[in-house]
Amino acid sequence: MSVVWMVFAEVTLLRPPRDLPPAPQHRVVRDADGTRRYGPSYVRRRGHIWEVGLVGDPVELGDAHGVLLREPMIRIERRMMSLFAHYVPSAALRSVIATLVRGRNYNLDHNYPRDRLFEIAAEARAFAPGDPFARFLPTYHRMVLLHALYDVSLSFEHSPLIGCSSLFASGIHTVDGHTYVGRNFDMEVDSVFDEEKAVMLVRARGRIPFASVGWPGLTGVLTGMNAAGIFVAVHGARAGTPRSTGVPVPTTLRNVLERAHSLDEAIAIVRADEPMVSHRLIVVDGDAGRGAVLERAPGFALAVRDLGGAGGIANHFATASLASSPRDIDVRRTTSTLLRQSAIDERVRADDGRFDASGVLRALRDRGAPGATRETLGNRGAIDAWIATHSVVADATRRILWVSEGPHTLGRYIEFDLGRLLGSEFGHDVDVEGLRSMPADPAFLDGSYGRWNRAHAAVGPARDAYDHHRDVECLRILDAASASLTVPDMESLELRARVLTRLGRRGEAVLAWQRYLASQPPAPSLRDEARRALGALGATEVQALP
């Protein structure tokens, strides 16, 4: 058996390019303000956000990334390893899963263009000395997999990435004629991706400078804007069959930002890459005031839909061939995408002609679910369910990004003036003492979020008690958690209705299900289930409740 494993490990091992150039010979220098420099690259804190300036060819970029961001990269991977162990307690099973992933992706590095492979390899080489996770997988092999993690995650049926919201407005739809974009990137994996948020300012030699909002270690793009005013963001979706071949979407979006000067050029670049998994892209041209949705799935032709002067997207397809896929039908039935799309459309109509950066931020912080007659917190059917890993407002005309400091959409939105930060100064002399920002959410400042966050944290233990038929304990946990809230938590409402039903407390159960329905459950399947529960109790839905 050991011989078989040794052969398997040898055959499936991903190795860095043999012709990888030597590492640059720089040393880290620390400025008086805490900025750390490595050759022409640097890293510093802007509020609670990592600001990372990277300059050079692919090897120089990757080397600086691995050197300057080593500590937060370790914290992120350590948290991911802990999550893996939490959800898969068996070491033997974790080993089986790792083996299956390794076997399925034995040629994953073939999916990356040469420049990206060199950058990842240089990053891995800089990170490798003392790599605390090398026993799990060698550094380069692991980093190639991590750079495709978005695509791998989207291939799961219950991916945590089917929950993003974006909106766009330009021209007559805005206060000043500028082109604005708002984007909530909802990835319910772990708070570390919010806590270690990074804005990468990249000046690759011979390419268009760009900014990418993500986390340390990621060289691809999930949300970003370049110096030409092209903004891109990816939304998870589901249709077709995932493939192990193709180009990871963060790599495609990196290619767009490095090469596209217009919306048409961006579309052509996306069209040239084969996708590994299905997804939607929002692409905006700040100078032309144009926005488009690009819908992609393996085996399907690229579909392009113009957004006109204003619009927005959630996570279900609009193209007929993709929308008729059983997988997309299931997304619409079992996730919050339809309700969030309604919420986005309502905001676009209500604020037409009045959008500016502050107006876009108000939309991103909209916590109301369309059709709800009772207010709740944490409803996935709202644009803002307090789950965003990062949230961004962009003025693509002026080349300015405002990035959420965290938690989620609640803290300040720190301003990044890309005209300066990607220009000749490249951050070296840009003042960071007087940070310009948009203000924190009042719910963060007055303690409302803190109280909800503590109450919501009790849902996990309460659900565990419910799953193990400790119903009285479940109810006790929910009662104690909700005591400090004036507005109920959405998940707690649902769990309360379930446990009261199982306890046979009919009158209370009916009222709990009615309150839950009046709060607008985020998915059609959840609303249907609640109506069936009421029917089984001999009651019906009501529209307004105290």
Structure characterization notes:
Helix 5 crosses helix 6. The longest helix is centred in the first third of the chain and has 18 residues. The strands form 2 sheets. An 11-stranded mixed sheet has the order 1-2-3-4-7-8-9-10-11-12-13, covered by helices on one side. A 7-stranded antiparallel sheet has the order 14-5-6-15-16-17-18. The N and C termini lie far apart (about 65 Å). The mean pLDDT is about 90. It contains 22 helices and 18 strands. A hairpin with a 4-residue loop joins strand 11 and strand 12. With about 550 residues, the protein is α+β, with helices and mostly antiparallel strands.
In short:
The protein is an alpha+beta fold and 546 residues long. The chain contains 22 helices and 18 strands. The strands form two sheets. Strands 1-2-3-4-7-8-9-10-11-12-13 form an eleven-stranded mixed beta sheet, with helices on one face.
